[in-house]
Design goal:
Oligomer: single chain
Structural class: alpha/beta
Number of helices: 12
Largest sheet: 7 strands, mixed
Order of helices and strands: HEHEHEHEHEHEHEHEHEHEEHH
Radius of gyration: 22 Å
Strand order of the largest sheet: 3-2-1-4-5-10-11
Bound molecules: adenosine-5'-diphosphate
Number of domains: 2
Length: about 350
């Protein structure tokens, strides 16, 4: 056993922010892998809130039995505003000291990673694992929960399609994703939707309605239009506009949180296993302040701040000075990640356009 591994006697694991199917698979894999390396594991309940309120349980190998297939997170998750304040952070650190937690693995989204960086900077090495159904963390091509959420969305839309076909209707379906169109564009393609509105691409309502009228005249009976969430007033009103403009009876459905739950798919369970083992290995090797990412089909690690700034670059939310500490080479890497993500959407949108009629 190496010296760095010996230094870590106990680590903590938590899920934080919005839950995602596959978080349980992360908790299980982190626990088993750490124990395999001779390290004890503490489960922190309710995300960072559990560190503040001292809600921490010891996890043995069998405590994580029979959860690999379960949605949600058995340690629970929460949004904890107190953790963003210095006083809350200090309480969290006291709890880590009390239980002699030498490092933490935190599964969640970008908010969770900001918390991870704060902990790392205050002497509690922390590594993030991306868990969010929206797949909206720019530094990683994939986040745990995305595949399950998409598959559940497909099942729901398939059902709507059945009834649209029977009654010669259209259904506008608002899917999850916050501002990110990943679930929307992929499920639109998979369900044979006639149109898809996402924020990443320009959307021409008139052109869609004209296309629908033409297709109806040619005999097409059912129409599915997928719209990303983000503007709660848009989708429902859009359904009304379609009905008025095309004369096709149009229903509206908001899938909402139903796609957040459910048993994780193979993709999410295997990704959880790969990312968790990598996170434990990095932590025990003395690394900190990293997020585990998927790029190509490889599992890699990225500095959390690099990941957060890349995210802001992609979302056009850069603040003054954000890029100052990065070399031209690192900036080039950030731009390449953002360009690849944009191209991914453009490619999918083009594919959809060519076959959605
Ligand atoms: P997600 O991780 O899914 O993006 P949130 O944005 O709600 O979800 O973040 C999860 C939690 O991470 C928050 O409730 C808070 O405890 C912590 N957090 C978020 N932003 C920060 C921040 N700027 N500094 C420290 N902790 C943060």
């Amino acid at each position: 056993m190496s010296e760095t591994v010996k230094k870590f006697r106990k680590i903590g694991v938590l899920a934080s922010g919005g839950d995602a199917p596959g978080m349980n698979a992360v908790i299980r894999a982190v626990t088993r892998c750490a124990i395999e390396h001779g390290v004890e594991v503490m489960g922190i309940k309710g995300g960072y809130a559990g560190l503040i309120s001292d809600d921490v349980v010891k996890l043995g190998a069998r405590d994580v039995s029979n959860i690999v297939n379960l949605g949600g997170t058995f340690l629970y998750s929460a949004r904890c505003l107190e953790f963003k304040e210095e006083a809350g952070m200090q309480k969290a650190i006291e709890t880590c000291r009390k239980y002699e937690i030498d490092g933490i693995i935190a599964c969640g989204g970008d908010g969770t990673f900001r918390g991870a960086t704060d902990l790392s900077n205050r002497g509690i090495p922390t590594i993030g694992i991306p868990g969010t159904i929206d797949n909206d963390i720019t530094a990683t091509e994939y986040s745990i929960g995305f595949d399950t959420a998409m598959n559940t969305t497909v099942q729901m839309i398939d059902r709507l399609r059945d009834t649209c076909l029977s009654h010669a209707r259209c259904n506008v379906v608002e899917v999850m994703g916050r501002d990110a169109g990943g679930i929307a564009i992929n499920t639109a393609i998979a369900c044979g939707a006639v149109g898809c509105m996402i924020n990443e691409m320009p959307f021409d309502e008139d052109a869609l309605m004209k296309k629908m009228i033409r297709l109806r005249n040619e005999g097409k009976r059912q129409f599915i239009v997928v719209v990303v969430e983000g503007n709660p007033y848009y989708s429902e009103a859009f359904a009304k506009r379609i009905e008025e403009a095309t004369g096709i009876e149009t229903k509206f459905a908001r899938l909402a949180h139903v796609v957040r739950g459910g048993s994780p798919t193979l993709r999410d369970r295997v990704t959880a296993a790969r990312m968790s083992v990598r996170a434990v290995e990095e932590l025990l090797a003395g690394k900190s302040d990293l997020v585990v990412c998927e790029r190509g089909s490889s599992i890699v690690t990225t500095d959390i701040n690099f990941a957060l700034i890349t995210d802001r670059m992609y979302k056009n939310k850069l603040r003054d000075g954000d890029l100052d500490k990065y070399s031209e080479e690192e900036l080039e890497k950030m731009r390449a990640i953002c360009d690849a993500k944009r191209r991914g959407f453009e490619d999918l949108y083009k594919i959809m356009d060519e076959i959605s009629w």
